[in-house]
Write a structure and sequence with these properties.
Layout: E1 3-19, E2 27-39, E3 44-50, H1 53-56, H2 60-74, H3 82-90, H4 97-115, H5 119-123, E4 129-131, E5 134-136, H6 141-153, E6 159-162, H7 167-180, E7 186-189, H8 196-205, E8 210-214, H9 222-231, E9 236-238, H10 245-253, E10 259-263, H11 264-267, H12 270-282, E11 286-290, H13 296-308, E12 312-315, E13 323-324, E14 328-330, E15 333-335, E16 338-340, E17 349-351
Parallel strand pairs: 5-6, 6-7, 7-8, 8-9, 9-10, 10-11, 11-12
Antiparallel strand pairs: 1-2, 1-13, 2-3, 4-16, 14-17, 15-16
C-alpha cells in the first residue's frame, strides 16, 4: 500500500457548553489538527491531533511543524508495516504527542481499511460496547446538580465531577449529585489540586459514594500520590502522572495508584496506549480510557482501544459531545450512557469539510 498524498488541516471548534476545571478557568474553544491520508488505490484514512498546552506544553505552531514533517516522511512508508512506520514518525514528533497521535490514528485507520475490519476487532475485539461517564465541570452547587440532571436526561448514568479548587466545596457538590441522583456511579477528578491531607479528607468524607478519585495530587509528586493511595478508602487513579510507558512503569512499580488513566491525545496514540495498558495489566491494575476535548474521530479511536482490551475497566469518552462544527462523523452509537461499536472498517469515521 503506497501513500500518495497527505493533507494537514488545522481547525478551531467551539464548545456548546463552556466548562471550567482547576487548571482551566474557562474553556470555550478547542484547537485541533486533522490529517488526511490517501493511497494509490484511492483509500482515504484520517487522523486527528487535539492538545492541551497545560498538559503537554505543545503549541499549534509546533504541532503543525511536526505534522508537516510526518506528512513528508509518510509518503515513503508502508502503513501496513505499522511498527516500522510509527517508529520512523516517532523520530519526528518528539515533544509533540498529539502530532504523533494524529499519524498513529491515520495509519491504524489504513490498517483497518486494508483488512476490512473495524479497528476494535483488529486490536483484540474483547467487547463491543462500554459505559462512559459524562463530565460535570466546576460550577456552583445548584448549577452542578443542574448539569448532572441535564446529562442524565441525555441518558448518561455515570458522572465524573471536576474539582480541585476547594476540597470542602467538592465534597458538597459530589454529595449533592448523589442525593439528587442516587445510584449513579460518581468519580471525582481533582486535576492535581489537593495536598495529601486534603485528598485523604475528601476520600474519607466521600467513602461509599465515590467510585474513584482521579489524580488528587500534583503529577510530578509521586511520593504524595503513593501516600494518598496507601491510606485512601477510595480507589485512586493516576492520570497526568501517566504520559507514556516509562511513567506508567514508575507508577505501578511504586504502587502509586490503584489504576491508570490513558488519553490517546497525550500519550501519542494507540500504539503507546496499548503499551501503557500492558504495563497496568502486568501489575493487575485496571485502566480507564479517557479523553480531552476532542473531535469524534479521536473518541472513535479511544473507543476502539477501550473495546479491544479486557484490562480496560472504565470509559471516560465524552470529549466530543459539545463540539460545534465537528467535521468527523462517527459510526459508533451513543445510547443509554454506553458507546457501542459498529462493524464499519477502520476507525469508522468520515470527515466532511
Amino acid at each position: 500500500m503506497q501513500i500518495t498524498h497527505v493533507e494537514v488541516v488545522p481547525a478551531e471548534l467551539t464548545l456548546r457548553l463552556p466548562y471550567r476545571t482547576a487548571r482551566h478557568p474557562q474553556v470555550e474553544r478547542v484547537t485541533v489538527v486533522f490529517v488526511r491520508v490517501e493511497t494509490r488505490t484511492g483509500v482515504t484514512a484520517w487522523g486527528c491531533a487535539a492538545f492541551d498546552p497545560l498538559l503537554t506544553g505543545e503549541t499549534m505552531e509546533g504541532v503543525l511543524r511536526a505534522c508537516a514533517a510526518c506528512a513528508d516522511r509518510a509518503r515513503d512508508l508502508n502503513p501496513l508495516n505499522i511498527e516500522h512506520a510509527l517508529d520512523e514518525l516517532a523520530l519526528l514528533t518528539q515533544g509533540s504527542p498529539s502530532a504523533q497521535c494524529a499519524f498513529d490514528l491515520a495509519f491504524h485507520d489504513l490498517l483497518g481499511l486494508a483488512a476490512g475490519l473495524p479497528l476494535y476487532r483488529l486490536l483484540g475485539g474483547y467487547r463491543h460496547q462500554i459505559p462512559t461517564s459524562a463530565t460535570i465541570s466546576i460550577a456552583p452547587l445548584r448549577e452542578t446538580v443542574e448539569l448532572a440532571h441535564g446529562r442524565a436526561r441525555q441518558g448518561f448514568r455515570i458522572f465524573k465531577v471536576k474539582g480541585g479548587l476547594d476540597p470542602e466545596e467538592d465534597v458538597r457538590r459530589v454529595r449533592a449529585i448523589h442525593e439528587a441522583l442516587p445510584g449513579f456511579p460518581l468519580r471525582l477528578d481533582a486535576d492535581q489540586g489537593y495536598t495529601v491531607r486534603q485528598a485523604l479528607d475528601v476520600a474519607r468524607a466521600l467513602e461509599g459514594i465515590l467510585e474513584m478519585l482521579e489524580q488528587p495530587t500534583p503529577a510530578a509528586d509521586l511520593e504524595a500520590l503513593v501516600e494518598v493511595t496507601r491510606h485512601s478508602p477510595v480507589p485512586i487513579l493516576a492520570d497526568e502522572s501517566v504520559i507514556g510507558p516509562a511513567s506508567a512503569l514508575e507508577v505501578v512499580s511504586r504502587r502509586a495508584a490503584n489504576g491508570l488513566s490513558i488519553k490517546l491525545a497525550t500519550c501519542g496514540g494507540l500504539r503507546c496506549a496499548r503499551q501503557v495498558d500492558a504495563v497496568a495489566r502486568a501489575a493487575r491494575m485496571a485502566t480507564m480510557v479517557s479523553c480531552v476535548n476532542e473531535p469524534a474521530l479521536l473518541t472513535a479511536a479511544g473507543l476502539s482501544f477501550a473495546l479491544s482490551s479486557p484490562n480496560v475497566g472504565y470509559g471516560d469518552l465524552d470529549g466530543h459531545l459539545d463540539l460545534i462544527g465537528d467535521p468527523s462523523r462517527p459510526a459508533f452509537i451513543l445510547k443509554d450512557g454506553c458507546l457501542t461499536a459498529t462493524d464499519v472498517p477502520g476507525l469508522g469515521c468520515t470527515v466532511e469539510w
